[in-house]
Amino acid sequence: LQVFDGEGKDVTPRPLFHSDPSTVVPRHGKLLASSAYFGATGSGFLSSLSVHQTSGVNASLDEIVEPGSQRDTTVSLSDVQVRQEEIKEELTKADLDRRVDIYLTETETIWILDMPSVVVSVESEDAGRVLERNRIYVDICKNRPGNDRFVEKMMQTINGAAKNKEVQCDKIIMEDKGMMVTSWDLYDSFNVSETESTSKAEGSRAATGKSSKSHTTKELDQTTSVSSDRGSTTSSMILESAVLARNHKEEECHSEAILTSENFQQDLFFMERILMENIFQPKLAAYRQFPVLIDPDVTLDTSGTVAAVKEAKQEEHDKEMKDKEEQKEAFIDPSTLSDLNKTPEEIVPPRLERLWSYMCDLTNGHSVSSMAWNKVNPDLLAVGYGAFDFKEQKKGLACCWSLKNPMWPERIFQCEHAVTALDFSMASPNLLAVGMYNGSVAIYNVRSCNTAALLDSSESSNKHTGPVWQLRWVEQDRGATEDGKKERLICISADGRITEWLIQKRLDCTDLMKIKRTESEKKKLPGEKERKSEALISQQAAGMCFDFRPKDTNFYLAGTEEGLIHQCSCSCSEQFLETYRGHKGPVYKVAWNPFSTDMFLSCSADWSIILWHRDSRTPILTFSSTPACVHDITWSPKSAFIFAAANESRVEIWDLSVSTLNPVVSCFASPRVKFTSVLFAKNTDCLLVGDSKGGVSVFELQNLAAPTSDKV
């Protein structure tokens, strides 16, 4: 049948199911179809079958039709009965008894909700990948500020997993205290005198009122009652304000008592030490040449890493000791041998690594004039702050810095004049001698918190009249009758005197030497007439520095403002043993070599450093690397070849075993800052440099191998 609409189009309904002619229907499919649709109640089922069937019925009928046959959508009842008879005839007992295998398989899992974990175990296989991804994210976050590749954008992120953190603390004990007080009790307590005067006044008024008339008495009584009410209200207000003021004052006194208590101050001191250690721990470890601690969060296996590092360092140390023994037997310099075994790429040049600076608001703007280590405590440093220019004089400071707190000094001694020199005593390490610009000398006790001087030379009649440019505690032999050594305080001043101070009930001094001016040695040309000697303004030359010989402290050197260096003896105060001429300006520092005691260095304002031998008047070597004044020099305590020099523009490290022309290490000063003093650390490879702004910088000497020989 076909159905056409009014326009002649074919609108015949199509079946929803189309059987595939090429599909072969299995035999068990016919069995299922026959059992499903043609059972025992097949006659009743067929009677209700209509011409147009559902897709399920059509499918069962299509399975019965042979492949390749054509049929219409209408099915007659006789055709269905014929097919049923054919199916019944084809099924045999063997077919019914035959075994049919049915396999049940698991279908694909459908995930309705999947929430992955936000944490990964360190022992899992993905731990390395997760750590690498976290490291990349941290690097991206560090590079984000100021980068054009990052744009501020809103987005939805996953909330982090909630964590619970428990902290155990001591139980807080609460106490309730109270008492009942009426306003009249407070009034009677604080205004006893007023109450007595008021009662007397009321008594006199009552006596006077008896002689008055009755109506006048009534009026007075009414007036008295009203005034008493007003007075009680005013007195209660005054009482409340007085109580509040008293409570506030008591609270202030209680807070002040807590802040000034000794236990509280000690707790703050310990807390400050702990904070400083946490802040400066890597730098302090580098200063003491200890290995820097590694954060446990950096690596997964910290114990293995630390053990490997320790094992590698131990192997390296054993190898170095073995090389040194072999080199000592063969008389070869170890630094030369190590450089020969290395390629040019492996040789690392020495350098200065800045660790920290001793500086605070109190010392800012004061020039560092001198530095000295404590003889017993190698972590205690004394620094003097003053000025070398006469026009820029200000009050001085003497501060004691500790390695445990590089941000604030342990002791602060205020001085009326600029501090020019200081030194710790060897016999009494708690005594600090300080020399000042006005010529006075003071001794402080650093063990005491009292900042006043123990002894002062202000009352001495023989005190210096010029700046004390250097002072030092010197141990000298007492003599043949007494055992041991005695300690003396020696000073040199611009008034031309070298003095020894006697520490008794008060400070007093005696002169070791008066530095006399000497005429310059000028060669007379042939035919030149003799010139008259010029009259000297002063018979004494200003002393600038001195240094006692390490082996024999009876001999010492004295540098003068004339540029001369005199060798003197403590047993002879009238004349010099030797005079060394080589500098053209004031000699700022002289220093004996601690290993080769016949050699000494000197620095001057003429931009030069000269190496001398005590038996030769002519210089052995002259070092001049930059056109600037050399303010300070010092020998290394570990090598006879290494010394440090502080110029105005930079600090230099010289190694005579490497070069006598150029320093091996140079470190330049900051703009508008001048280096004024230099000092080696005692037990470590570090250098301290003072500047004109009040800072003492601590530098670590890296890759600077000290030669083993002790002779220059």
UniProtKB/TrEMBL annotation:
Q: What is its main location?
A: cytoplasm
**Which of UniProt's keywords are assigned here?**
Cell projection, Cilium, Cytoplasm, Cytoskeleton, Flagellum, Repeat, WD repeat
GO BP terms: namely: cilium movement
Chloroplast is among the record's keywords: no
Top-level lineage group: Eukaryota
Q: Where is the composition biased (Low complexity)?
A: 223-234
Give one GO term, molecular function aspect.
dynein light chain binding
Question: Where is the sequence biased in composition, kind Basic and acidic residues?
Answer: 1-12
The protein's matches in PROSITE patterns, at most eight in alphabetical order, are given as: WD_REPEATS_2
WD repeat residues = 580-622, 623-657
Region (Disordered) location? 1-20, 195-234
Q: Show the Pfam families listed in the entry.
A: WD40 (PF00400)
Subcellular location per the Swiss-Prot or TrEMBL entry: Cytoplasm, Cytoskeleton, Flagellum axoneme; Dynein axonemal particle
Annotated Gene Ontology cellular components are: axonemal dynein complex; dynein axonemal particle
According to UniProt, the name of this protein is: Dynein axonemal intermediate chain 4
Q: Which organism is it from?
A: Oceanodroma tethys (Wedge-rumped storm-petrel)
